[in-house]
């Protein structure tokens, strides 16, 4: 069982390390293929579409066994898909007519990532039934953040030294090959393996198993204690237009910051995520969820607003160089947004019905991805509306101000979040 947990932990670390090739891919798309800021953001959001299909993968991993196992084979499949995608990008020529193939590889890579993430979340949920509340979720968050920390740290350095994204694509492909070998060579032993879940499933046909699992998922999601928190966390992301592509181009093209600074800023963001996770695990778990989420959302709105300091160059008036400001504060909003998911993950783990681990968490994460896609689409629309799509940045302060105000909107339906639930006590007050 410990070997399975190592495979799962390695999966979280590798998924966090995906920022390593993605940093290179962003530079590759803008400098190699000449994409505009808006086009880059559209590619980022369109490439995330396979992640919306996570509920399907969750239902499959819950209901369909491959051989005598139903978790690790899916991790192997996900790693193989990612290996195929990034390996192809590593050998593909850099010409304008290869963009459709680039897009297909991005979609296949994210498809593999979504399969791996779904199954890893299901494994954590199964193991968490035998552990203290929230411990494994916190470890998973730390593993994800540790991978992202190293990925951003090394990514910026390698890209600065080599100026060759394909080297980073190749290195990540090698890492995926190691993950694939580890998952194939591990025998699955999970808490559910000793139960009756498999014997109940094999008595029915595959279509019947899938229908039953889908019905169980819908029943779980319709429960008010699950539905309302899900609705809040998803809408809290969806209503905030994200200007990530524009900010990336502003920092790299307008401010002329090099890749190492961008990578190091992401590292600082992951350090913040790890610090917040440790702080939550030690102290913040005792705070009622609604009060905690309210404070986090307000902090997020102010973190978004703080980007005005860089755009208006107030930091230079205070004697703070652009490199230092980006390094210390650029990833603050992203880190807070990433941390905000943790309490809801623990809440769902405590409420998840047995047998729905994969499908419910897949529904949860796919909802977050869909919300992020909507947020990105709204960001593209906002950019076009205020004139950012033309290539100038004079209206960027207005965009940031509107983005910050939108971040306060979810406070209007904060009653959807359980008022008295804490990760320590599992106290849930029905609406």
UniProtKB/TrEMBL annotation:
Swiss-Prot/TrEMBL keywords: Membrane, Transmembrane, Transmembrane helix, Transport
Membrane topology term: Multi-pass membrane protein
Principal place of residence: membrane
Localization terms from the record: Membrane
One Pfam family matching this protein: BT1
Highest taxon listed in the record's lineage: Eukaryota
Membrane spanning stretches: 72-93, 139-160, 226-248, 260-280, 292-312, 324-348, 360-386, 398-417
A single Gene Ontology CC term: membrane
Gene3D superfamilies tied to this protein: MFS general substrate transporter like domains (1.20.1250.20)
NCBIfam families xrefs: fbt
Family, per entry: Belongs to the major facilitator superfamily. Folate-biopterin transporter (TC 2.A.71) family.
Protein name per the record: Major facilitator superfamily (MFS) profile domain-containing protein
């Amino acid at each position: 069982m410990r070997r399975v947990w190592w495979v799962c932990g390695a999966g979280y670390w590798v998924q966090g390390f995906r920022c390593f090739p993605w940093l290179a891919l962003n530079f590759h798309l803008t400098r190699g293929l000449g994409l505009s800021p808006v086009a880059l953001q559209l590619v980022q959001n369109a490439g995330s579409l396979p992640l919306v299909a996570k509920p399907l993968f969750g239902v499959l991993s819950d209901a369909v066994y491959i051989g005598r196992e139903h978790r690790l084979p899916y991790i192997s499949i996900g790693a193989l898909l990612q290996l195929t995608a990034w390996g192809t990008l590593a050998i593909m020529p850099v010409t304008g007519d290869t963009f459709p193939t680039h897009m297909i590889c991005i979609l296949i890579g994210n498809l593999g990532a979504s399969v791996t993430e779904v199954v890893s979340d299901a494994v954590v949920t199964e193991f968490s039934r035998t552990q203290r509340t929230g411990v494994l979720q916190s470890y998973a968050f730390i593993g994800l953040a540790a991978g992202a920390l190293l990925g951003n740290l090394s990514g910026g350095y390698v890209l600065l030294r080599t100026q060759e994204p394909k080297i980073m694509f190749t290195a990540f492909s090698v890492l995926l090959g190691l993950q694939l070998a580890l998952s194939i060579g591990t025998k699955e032993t999970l808490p559910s393996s000793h139960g009756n879940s498999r014997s109940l499933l094999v008595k029915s046909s595959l279509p019947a198993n899938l229908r039953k699992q889908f019905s169980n998922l819908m029943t779980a999601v319709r429960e008010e204690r699950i539905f309302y928190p899900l609705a809040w966390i998803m809408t809290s992301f969806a209503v905030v237009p994200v200007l990530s592509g524009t900010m990336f181009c502003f920092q790299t093209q307008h401010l002329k910051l090099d890749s190492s600074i961008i990578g190091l800023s992401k590292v600082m963001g992951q350090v913040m995520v790890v610090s917040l996770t440790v702080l939550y695990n030690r102290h913040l778990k005792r705070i009622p969820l609604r009060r905690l989420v309210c404070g986090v959302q307000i902090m997020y709105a102010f973190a978004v607003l703080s980007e005005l300091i860089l755009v208006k160059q107030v930091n230079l008036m205070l004697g703070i160089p652009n490199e230092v400001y980006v390094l210390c504060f650029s990833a603050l909003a992203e880190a807070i947004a990433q941390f905000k998911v943790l309490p809801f993950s623990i809440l769902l783990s405590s409420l998840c019905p047995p047998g729905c681990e994969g499908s419910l968490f897949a529904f949860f994460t796919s909802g977050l991805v869909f919300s992020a896609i909507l947020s990105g689409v709204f960001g593209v629309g906002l950019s076009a509306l205020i004139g950012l799509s033309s290539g100038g940045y004079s209206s960027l302060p207005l965009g940031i101000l509107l983005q910050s105000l939108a971040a306060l909107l979810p406070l209007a339906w904060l009653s959807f979040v359980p008022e008295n639930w804490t990760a320590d006590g599992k106290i849930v007050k029905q609406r």
